[in-house]
Design a protein that fits this description.
Blueprint lengths: L1 H34 L11 H4 L46 E7 L2 H5 L4 E15 L2 E14 L10 E2 L14 H12 L5 H12 L5 H28 L2 E12 L7 E11 L4 E6 L4 H8 L5 E5 L4 H11 L4 E5 L1 H9 L6 H24 L3 H11 L1 H16 L8 H11 L18 H17 L5 H19 L4 H11 L7 H5 L3 H20 L1
Parallel strand pairs: 1-3, 5-8, 8-9
Antiparallel strand pairs: 2-3, 3-4, 5-6, 6-7
Helix pairs in contact: 4-16, 5-6, 6-15, 9-10, 9-13, 10-11, 12-13, 15-16, 15-18
């Protein structure tokens, strides 16, 4: 009798766990089903809404359609008038401020009295200051010597500097504002076009905005390559990924699923990389087989797999688990197992309080590692011991979210302790997850990327803007500087490195310090 009762109790326990799992699944499906508030109406499901009885003309089938008489006179086709396309100057409203200036060669500036004007060539560009548009007119003048016959004279003239968009009409301040509005402030190009038209009467075509971002990203790819080279040599990086949809050219009217991979190095630079899937090979191709160091990440299998591969090849590569991801698992268990979940969360709170103390003291790497091993290591081992106890106990085995959280923590293995022995490693991935936020908020506005190729161009621009913001530079000012200076750098690595976000921010800070010193003097 007692054996039957024991079997019945086990069956009841298993059924309770199954009921709990099904209730959680139902809650999840309800959130997915009722969380979306789309107002789109399917015309096939509700035909009466679009063709109510008595309104409009019903469609006639081919059988009931009257036959057309052969001798019925046919209307002559109308001649369509082709509209002449407006020039860039004609598309602008009247009354815009024109800022004119002369551009002369250095030979003329040294001795103006020795030269005679031959011709003037004005070139206009559209610029924007905060709140107003203007036209910048530069007049390039050509000169010949006065004491020489005009036929035999050798003319001199100033050359226009190279631009990031050959023959472009926009100045750097306008292009930088449009790009920052799109990638940092989440305004799609068509919305910006309508905004400029309504506020300033200036029509900026959406396609021109897209082309400007395209040229900018293609030119700046070389800077991102330098950032990647430096990041892989630093020996420590954080990795994460997020999804983004793109318009599928092979299936008109549909979108595909792409992926932005994010990497953050010790110097604060963030690199975005675009792929058309989440396949493991994408990460392996990006990081290569020569990397040695620590990779901080969530538990996505590609990261532990890469570390095992490198270890088998004799490389010193380890993964550092993200404690924020582990903590969130226990937060989800608060509803079903509040007592145990609160105990785990209290331990996590102590771990984060230790990190806050280290940040306040501005401790170096060695001090941080020693302090963590003294104060955080016992807490980590306590978490693992409690998780093993809950997993292995025969009665009251944790089910649902608590069991999932316990298994997630134990599956981290030794990776949960990696950060304790390396002071340069952060406790979690929260920093790089904050860098995803502009992308996450932006895709709610622009919904999808225009093409698979546009994904990588977006990744380049995101990399530069987010990295510049990390180093304390104004992203828009940084972008203006790139647009103005990058075309003249060519392939000179020293000149290109001056334009990297960390070097640009340091140069701007030094310039501001010198200006403050001169003002104080």
């Amino acid at each position: 009798m007692s054996e039957e009762l024991t079997e019945d109790q086990k069956t009841i326990q298993e059924l309770r766990e199954r009921i709990l799992q099904l209730e959680q699944q139902i809650d999840w499906f309800n959130r997915q089903l009722f969380g979306s508030k789309s107002e789109k109406i399917n015309a096939q499901q509700h035909p009466d809404l679009f063709n109510p009885v008595g309104l409009g003309k019903p469609e006639t089938s081919s059988e009931n359609r009257p036959e057309e008489e052969d001798n019925e006179p046919q209307e002559a086709p109308r001649k369509t008038k082709t509209r002449r396309r407006q020039t860039r100057s004609e598309a602008l409203p009247e009354g815009l401020e024109i800022r004119s200036s002369y551009v002369d060669p250095p030979e003329y500036r040294e001795n103006p009295a020795a030269w005679r004007l031959l011709k003037e060539e004005p070139r206009r560009h559209l610029g924007k200051d905060p709140g107003t548009f203007y036209i910048e007119e530069k007049i390039y003048r050509t000169w010949v010597p006065i004491d020489t016959d005009q036929i035999q004279a050798k003319a001199i003239g100033a050359k226009a500097p190279p631009t990031i968009i050959p023959g472009g009409f926009w100045l750097s301040n306008l292009l930088a504002e449009v790009v920052c509005n799109r990638f940092l402030y989440h305004l799609p190009y068509d919305r910006q076009s309508k905004l400029y038209q309504s506020r300033h009467g200036v029509y900026l075509p959406k396609q021109t905005m897209c082309d400007g971002a395209l040229h900018l990203a293609n030119q700046c790819q070389i800077l991102v390559d330098l950032m990647k080279s430096d990041m892989l040599q630093c020996g420590c990086l954080r990795a994460d990924e997020t999804e983004a949809r793109f318009r599928d050219p092979d299936k008109p009217g549909t979108t595909g699923r792409g992926r932005f991979w994010l990497y953050k190095g010790l110097n604060g630079n963030v690199i975005f990389d675009w792929t058309l899937g989440r396949d493991h090979q994408h990460f392996l191709d990006w990081i290569g087989l020569d990397f040695e160091g620590i990779i901080g990440s969530e538990a996505y299998e590609v990261y532990p797999k890469y570390c095992r591969l490198q270890k088998a090849r004799g490389k010193k590569t380890r993964r550092a688990a993200c404690l924020a991801h582990i903590r969130r698992q226990f937060e989800e268990a608060l509803k079903t197992s509040p007592h145990l979940a609160k105990w785990f969360l209290k331990i996590f709170g102590k771990l984060y309080q230790i990190e806050a103390t280290l940040n306040e003291r501005e401790a170096d790497e060695n001090t941080t590692a020693r302090y963590r091993q003294k104060h955080s290591l016992p807490l980590i081992r306590l978490l693992k011991k409690a998780s093993l106890h809950l997993r292995d106990q025969k009665a009251g085995r944790p089910a649902g979210p608590l069991g999932k959280a316990v298994r997630y923590l134990l599956n981290q293995g030794e990776d949960i302790e990696t950060y304790l022995f390396h002071g340069q490693v952060e406790i979690d991935n929260n920093g790089i997850e904050r860098d995803v936020r502009p992308l996450a908020v932006g895709r709610k506005n622009w919904l999808f990327i225009g093409s698979p190729e546009a994904g990588q161009r977006s990744a380049v621009i995101y990399s530069l803007l987010i990295s510049a913001r990390h180093h304390g530079a104004d992203p828009e000012a940084y972008l203006r500087g790139l647009i103005e200076r990058l075309p003249s750098c060519g392939s000179d690595e020293a000149s290109l490195r001056q334009l990297l976000p960390e070097n640009w921010a340091a140069a701007q800070e030094q310039s501001a310090s010198r200006s403050s010193a001169r003002a104080a003097a």
